[in-house]
Write a structure and sequence with these properties.
Helix content is 38%, strand content 25%. It has 318 residues and is α+β, with helices and mostly antiparallel strands. The strands form three sheets. Strands 6-5-4-3-7 form a five-stranded antiparallel sheet. Helix 2 packs across helix 3, helix 4 runs antiparallel to helix 5 and helix 4 runs parallel beside helix 6.
C-alpha cells in the first residue's frame, strides 16, 4: 500500500494494469489498497471505463497519519511518557508533547479514534521531574548537526558560572532523563559535553565545518565515560532473567545482556561504592557472582561473613 502511495504521489494518472505490473501484484490487490488509502483519508480519484485510471488529487487538506493500530498506541504512549518528564514550562519538550497528546486523534483515521480516545481516558502517568529542554533548541541543534554548522550559545555550568561558547555540534544524547550535546568546543580546542537545559540563546552562524571522528565508538559511550569517571565499573553475573535484573536496577546506569547460561544475565554497572548494589540484589533474591573489581569481591565476601555470623548467634536471653 505504501509503495502504491509513493507511485500515486507523482501526481500522474495510472491504469490499474499499469499499477499491478509496477507493484507485481494482482489488479484486485490494487483495488483493495486504493480502498485502504481512501479509508486513511487520501483522495484517490478513479476514472472508470476505457482509458480509466487512478490518480491522487492534489491541493487537498493534509490527510490523516498512516498508522496501524499498534503504531497509534505506541505514538500515544510515547507522547504520554515524554509529557510526564519535565517541568511543564511553556515551550519545553514536555509541554509540546502534552499539546500533541491532546491533538493526536484529529490526524488519525476515523476507525482508530475510538481506540485512541479510550486509551487516553484509561491512562495515567507519574510525573518525573527533569530539567526542562526547549523543543525549538533540540530542533535547531538537529538542523545545525545535519548541516555541519557552527553554533554559538550561552552556557551555565554546574557551579552557576556563565560563558559564551562556539561549538561544532555533532550529536544530541538522551540519558537518564537528561539531554546532552556532544560538540567540538572551538575556543577550548577539544570535545565537550553540554547539558541542554543549561544552554541559552542558540545562534546558528551559517559557518560550515568539516566532519570529525567522534572521540569514542558512539557519543553515548563518550558521555557515559565522562559521567562515570569517578565511579567504579562492576561486572557481575546474576542468575535471573534480564527483565528481572533490569527491574531491580532501574535507577542505575547499567548495561544488561543475556548471559551464556540458561537464566543468566551479564551486568556492567558503575557505582560509587560496593554498598549501593547490596540492597538491589537482596530484593532480587537471586544468586550472583562478582567478576570485577577484585576489591569489591573482597568487600562482598567480608559482608557475607558478617551476615553469617549474625545468623549463627543465638538470640539474647531475657
Amino acid at each position: 500500500m505504501l509503495a502504491l502511495l509513493s507511485i500515486l504521489q507523482t501526481g500522474r494518472p495510472f491504469s490499474g494494469d499499469d499499477l499491478a505490473a509496477r507493484l507485481d501484484v494482482s489488479p484486485r490487490t490494487v483495488r483493495r489498497d486504493v480502498d485502504r488509502l481512501r479509508e486513511y483519508g487520501y483522495p484517490v480519484e478513479t476514472q472508470p471505463g476505457p482509458g480509466g485510471h487512478y490518480r491522487l488529487v492534489a491541493g487537498r487538506t493534509m490527510p490523516p497519519l498512516v498508522l496501524d493500530d499498534d503504531e497509534a498506541v505506541a505514538v500515544l504512549l510515547g507522547l504520554a511518557t515524554l509529557a510526564s518528564s519535565g517541568s511543564g514550562e511553556d515551550g519545553a519538550l514536555d509541554d509540546a508533547a502534552t499539546r500533541a497528546y491532546g491533538k493526536l486523534d484529529q490526524f488519525l483515521p476515523a476507525r482508530l479514534r475510538p481506540r485512541v480516545a479510550a486509551l487516553r481516558a484509561s491512562l495515567e502517568t507519574d510525573r518525573r521531574l527533569a530539567p526542562a529542554v526547549n523543543a525549538a533548541l533540540l530542533a535547531g541543534l538537529a538542523e545545525a548537526i545535519n548541516d555541519r554548522e557552527v553554533v554559538r550559545f550561552g552556557y551555565r555550568d554546574r557551579h552557576g558560572g556563565a560563558s559564551r561558547r562556539r561549538v561544532e555540534p555533532h550529536r544530541q544524547i538522551h540519558l537518564l532523563a537528561r539531554w546532552y550535546l556532544l560538540g567540538w568546543d572551538l575556543d577550548r580546542d577539544d570535545w565537550r559535553v553540554f547539558r541542554l537545559d543549561r544552554v541559552r540563546d542558540l545562534v546558528r552562524t551559517g559557518v560550515r565545518h568539516a566532519p570529525r571522528d567522534l572521540p569514542a565508538d558512539a557519543a553515548l559511550a563518550y558521555l557515559r565515560r565522562g559521567l562515570n569517571a569517578d565511579r567504579r565499573r562492576v561486572r557481575l553475573v546474576v542468575r535471573a532473567r534480564p527483565d528481572r535484573v533490569a527491574d531491580a536496577l532501574k535507577f542505575e546506569d547499567a548495561e544488561i545482556h543475556r548471559g551464556p547460561g540458561d537464566g543468566e544475565t551479564r551486568v556492567t554497572v558503575w557505582l560509587d561504592s560496593w554498598e549501593w548494589l547490596v540492597l538491589a540484589l537482596a530484593r532480587l533474591d537471586a544468586d550472583f557472582t562478582v567478576v570485577e573489581p577484585e576489591d569489591f569481591r573482597g568487600a562482598y565476601a567480608a559482608f557475607a561473613r558478617r551476615l553469617l555470623a549474625a545468623a549463627d548467634e543465638p538470640p539474647p536471653r531475657r
